[in-house]
Each structure stands twice: as C-alpha cells, then as structure tokens.
Write a structure and sequence with these properties.
Blueprint: H1 17-24, E1 34-36, H2 37-40, E2 41-43, E3 48-50, E4 56-57, E5 78-82, E6 95-97, E7 106-107, E8 116-118, E9 122-126, H3 131-140, H4 142-152, H5 158-166, E10 169-171, H6 175-190, H7 214-219, E11 230-231, E12 236-241, E13 258-262, H8 264-267, E14 275-277, E15 284-285, E16 290-293, E17 302-303, E18 308-310, E19 314-319, H9 325-333, H10 335-344, H11 355-360, E20 362-363, H12 380-389
Parallel strand pairs: 4-8, 13-18
Antiparallel strand pairs: 1-10, 2-9, 3-5, 5-8, 6-7, 6-9, 11-20, 12-19, 13-14, 15-18, 16-17, 16-19
Length: 390
C-alpha cells in the first residue's frame, strides 16, 4: 500500500504541491519504468451540447465503492462527449477520469455506445489498446487515488488539475507483464458492470394521503413496496448506531489495545485515520457484521472484515445468519435496496436514516438467495491495489 511522508520545505526549490507530491510519494513495486500520462495518451474534446432532461453520465453517476455507473443525471446542461463505435467522440477502450479523487475512473465499454458523458471528465485515449485498462486500474487503485488526491490539493482550477494529472508519472511495465495481469484486471472490471438505477424524468405525481403516513406516501411512487419482503430488523439480532467520539477520545496513529475506527470515509474507500481504546460505551463491529451509513444519500453497505469501533454516523447490523451477509450487502447496494433507502430517509438538509426506519426496510426472500462469490465485499480501489501489486 502507498503511504505519505513528511517532507521538509527548508531546502525545497518549490512549494508547488504537484512537485512535492512527486518527491514524497512512490508507487508500489520495484524497478518499474515510469512514464508521464500525457506521453501515452491523447486528450479528447467534447463535441456535443446537451440540455436538461437528457440522461448524461456525470462524475456523480459513478459508484465510489463498487465502481461503474449507478444512475445517470437528467439535470446536466452543458458540453458533452458522445460514445460511438468508431470515428469521432469517445469509443470503447477510452478512459474517463473524474476530477474528484474519491471517485473511480470509468473504462468505456461497448455497453456505453450511444451514451452522453459530461465534459467535466478528463477523457483519455491510450496510445495502445492494452494501455486503457491498465491506466484505468492504476489510477483507480488505492495508490492511484492517493496520487490524485495530492494533485487535487491546492490547485486553483479544474484545468490546472487536469494539466497536473497529465504530468503524473505512472508505472508502465513491459507489455508481457501487462498481458499477464490483464485477466485479473478484466475480472475486477467485470464486477463494476451492474444494473443502473432509473433516471426519473419528473418529480411530481399523484399520491394517496389517506393512509396517514404522509412521508412514505409523498416520496414513494409505490408505498406498498415497503411491505414486499421481510423487514431488515427481523434479519438482525441487533441494529446499533455507533458512538460519537470526541477528539480527545481517539488517536491518530495505531497502537496496542487500540481499535481502528470505521466511519463513512472508510466505507468510501479511504484509509483508517482514527484509533480508539475500547470503552464500555464503544460500539464494536465484528467480522460478518454489516456497516450502513446513518447520514447522507449513499447507502454503501459494507461487510465488516475486521474488528473495529463504529463511528456515530454508521449503523452496524448484527445478523442472525452471518452467511446471509454478502447477499444482503449486494441487495442494500443495489437498485431496489438503494431506492427503498431513499424513501426512508428524513431531514431537509442532511439526509438522515433513523434506526426504526432502517429496521423497516423490506428485504425480498429471493435477495438472500444470492451467493455469488464474485460480488465485491471491499471497495474497488482496494481490490485493484491487490490485483496490481500483490
């Protein structure tokens, strides 16, 4: 894994963040040649213009945990790329780089032909067709995300960030080595292709308020869907919300008898930044439990793989049957589970999930029958980190 270092500026010839990043960070592996991204790619220009109410792939469309497209936007208005089989515009094999480093890259595939893509992406075409998947994997990996995060820190504009990213040196092994890893990377990329959520064309509809539960009736197009399945609470021994820790209660470095703190940032793929001693009020998650965000629009249920303390902004679900964990995570992160979660959120400014509402979320019996071992249980950047460097 990549790690940052403390750099002295006393004798530095420049305080430019990009230059300091290059000196302070290094890619995993040894003796792998480095090349500038701009030397092995060409930058593509947006050639179309779209108005609102047209489905467009934007950076917000990307799933930060599993990768791929979750939902296209109907609110985008501006310049756009168009994906075509050939000729001008984007085509399969091109790479889309979001400027927000927390988001994964998108590898354009045949299934995207005909799509419109926001110009806020940096669109790249590799000099060799084998390089596209490699660039996607390297810049989406945990190491690539760290480099992109440092580049994005302190830049004055999006154009500056794009220029700095093109100057980034990435590892480029011999073609034979890339070919050896290609099958492994293709397997990871395949898991990012999942069913997209519907981009609704309008927000208004007729609702029946006679049931008395106005919140559900107003936000759900089908309130009866909340009764179509087993309530999530019945599948759990316990649903517990994490403990709100004060700054003096945690450490910024790991140590003996300290547990890592799992928070929303960790669910989003960022490394652990806090550790805490176990106190009577500490909520502890064990392997096999499920984390679910208590605030925000993103569901991103994640299966716990280690013992950790739970932050206040997360729920931990202790299942009656731990073997159902992977299938339940898939359902909660999927189109149906995500849509139902949106129905149950409260809060006008900061969306919030109440414990009783989460327990009410229905789980169809067939959702628990999914046992595919290929379903990602960790974030895409971590899986690519292992696929590339282990």
């Amino acid at each position: 894994m990549i790690a940052s270092t403390v750099t002295s500026l006393r004798d530095a010839r420049t305080w430019d963040p990009v230059a300091l990043t290059a000196a302070a960070l290094s890619w995993p592996g040894r003796d792998t040649p480095l090349v500038r991204l701009r030397d092995v790619t060409s930058t593509l220009l947006a050639e179309s213009w779209v108005e609102r109410d047209v489905p467009v792939i934007t950076p917000a469309s990307l799933d930060p945990i599993s990768g791929g497209i979750r939902k296209r936007s109907l609110k985008y208005r501006g310049a756009a790329y168009q994906v075509r089989d050939s000729g001008t515009g984007l085509r399969p094999g091109d790479v889309l780089v979001p400027m927000l480093p927390d988001l994964p890259l998108l590898l354009v595939g045949p299934e995207h032909v005909g799509s419109l893509v926001s110009s806020s992406f940096l669109a790249l075409r590799a000099a060799d067709e084998q390089l596209g998947p490699w660039i996607w994997a390297v810049l989406t990996s945990r190491s690539g995300r760290m480099f992109r995060t440092h580049i994005a820190t302190g830049v004055a504009s999006r154009a500056t960030a794009k220029s700095a990213l093109l100057d980034l040196e990435i590892p480029l092994p011999p073609l034979a080595e890339m070919a050896r890893l290609r099958h492994r990377l293709d397997g990871v990329e395949l898991t990012t292709r999942h069913e997209e959520e519907e981009a609704r064309e309008t927000w208004w509809r007729i609702a029946d308020l006679s049931s008395g539960d106005w919140q559900i009736a107003l936000v759900s197009p089908d309130p009866h869907a909340l009764n179509a399945g087993v309530p999530l609470g019945e599948l759990c021994r316990e649903i517990a919300r994490g403990y709100s820790m004060q700054p003096l209660e945690y450490h910024v470095e790991p140590g003996p008898e300290l547990l890592p703190v799992t928070d929303i940032a960790v669910l989003g793929g960022r490394p652990t930044r806090r550790w805490t001693p176990v106190e009577p009020r500490t909520v502890v998650a064990e392997p096999g439990d499920i984390f679910v965000a208590a605030v925000g629009n993103r569901p991103h249920a994640v299966l716990a793989t280690t013992t950790s303390a739970v932050d206040r902004n997360l729920f931990v679900l202790r299942l009656r049957e731990r073997s159902a964990g992977p299938a339940l995570v898939r359902y909660l992160n999927g189109q149906t589970g995500y849509g139902l979660r949106q129905v149950l959120l409260t809060g006008a400014y900061i969306p919030n999930m109440r414990k009783d509402m989460l327990a009410r979320l229905p789980v169809p019996p067939e959702a628990l029958e999914h046992t595919s071992s290929s379903e990602p249980q960790v974030s895409l950047d971590v899986r690519l980190e292992h696929a590339l460097w282990d």
